Amino acid sequence: MQKKKLLSLLLAGATVLSLAACGQQTVTTNPSASNTPAASPSQSQGTEAVKPTEPTGQLVIGTTTDLDNDFYDASFNNNATNYKLYDLLHGYGTIVSDIEGDWVYDPTVVASHEEVENEDGTKTYTVTINDGLVWSDGTPITAKDYVFQLLLESSPEMNAVDGYPSQAGYSLVGYQDYFAGNTKNFAGVHLVDDMTYSVTVQAEELPYHYDITYASAAPRPMHVIAPGCDVVDAPEGAMITGDFTADLLMETINNSTTGYRYNPTVTCGPYLFQSYDIASRQGVLVVNPNYAGDYRGVKPLIEKIIIKTVKSDTMMNELASGSVDLLFQCSGADTINAGLDLVEAGEAMDNTFYRNGYGKVQFDCSQFPTDSENVRKAIAYCLDRNEFARQYSGGYASVVHSYYGLAQWEYQESQDWIEQNLNTYEKNIDMAKQLLEEDGWTLNADGTPYSGTGTRYKEVDGELKPLVIEWCNTSNNPVSELLATMLPESMTEAGMELRATTTDFPTMQAAITHTGDKIYNMYNLATGFALASSPWYYFSTDPVWMQGGYNSNWIADEELAAAAEALKAIPYDDTETWLTTWQNFIAIWNDKLPDIPLYSDEYYDFYSPKLHDWYSTAVWEWSRAVLDAWVEA
To answer: What CATH superfamily classification does 18-89+274-351+603-631 receive?
Structure first.
């Protein structure tokens, strides 16, 4: 079996969340279509335009997920638009995914590497960085910047900055003592020389499916984030010297005006941060003249990138008028058909691919009453998902029944198995009622046996509690609007009350991460899977993975956690074992139902004819594709 690696590593973050629409983490695909991407623009445009040799022009990218004022990494904010912007600002990671989705050492960054299996079961990765890489301010990049990143983002001091998860070195020897503040030395991290670092992985973290990623680090500008500090090595491990405190980081990272999180003035990615307008949620990036190139040595040819918020109902008009140049990852019948009309009229170009993710209703499994498996299933039985997908996508999506998307090779190999083994949760109000009765929702508000109409109650610790589901959604969201027409009546018939709250995405995200003023029972979102898809983190019962957006369902189910954990140690090339273990995992997930999967679809990029050489896929997303693209003068 040929493994198609259609997954994506979050080296420092979790599954990316977004709303469901164009320019977010949603893409639609006709299930009967081929998984072969559309022809690249260079094949289909037939243009006589001359490709520039130096960066020129600008590209206005429209997104329906507002860009937030947060530019550090996904551990602070995993908004889909922001997450891709990090790729453009921060570069030179030692391990990267290539255009096919394979993990490789980046030759632009890495001069040499060595992997040694130690007698005690640990494994040491030693990486030497190329000379000549510099920060955008001209400061040389050395191994210290890579060691600093590992120490900084594993430290209790960083954890004190708005609860940053500080998990960069979680798998390395000595992490727990270092994170707990018991020692200033990180035993598993060493600064070997000016251009070389090493990391040693704990024996219990091996074997690991994506073991090459253990060698991964990305530089952080120590002279900006920790001025006056230094990285030194000792037999006990590397450490940060100087006045390295949480108070320092609160100023250098979290200051709302000058902090690196909001104003990253010194970076090393293909683009530099120029400005962000809070009122319009618009961000502007300009090309980094010091950038040495991606893993292929490719440097950007577009001088300026503007990220602009657009509305679903008017964004195609903006593309036609030229106020935006690119709408990425569009989904839904109305949006796609409007875009294809522009293509037919010669006013736009298109690119399409299957989605590596799915749209969903996400439950918070730590909150009453959705902490109950039966309640979650009852809500699922109240929704006609086939009709939902038909109305939303107009034939550009397929209903999925568990934690998978159409682009994944596991799904493509398992379609018959899925049909035979997973609960499809066809709409069935009687089944919903039965599950609720089994769960104890058998009373009226006055404590008498349930009459069959109105809101159900159950006695919990001597108190009668109503079956109320708090649903948080966002405005101008076609998925929210469709759910609002399909769910309430059925849920009422089953004895549930659905209370909807509409807010903006940052407020909803704060609720999901338990950092806001209120937590809800459910949210409608879209998710894009990581290239190194790691469900053993996303469904772990370990409290460390309940933060930072990893276990965003807040589900603590030992059976589900064990099924996910079983995937972790399977060798990367053992596709047969991986597939059967993955099938077991998605079957258990299907039974526990931390989400209601709604659809996985086909994404369309629509863009101006002035944009050339545009090619993106499920594993080569727009933030990578922009390096190959160029615009006519």
So the answer is: Periplasmic binding protein-like II (3.40.190.10)
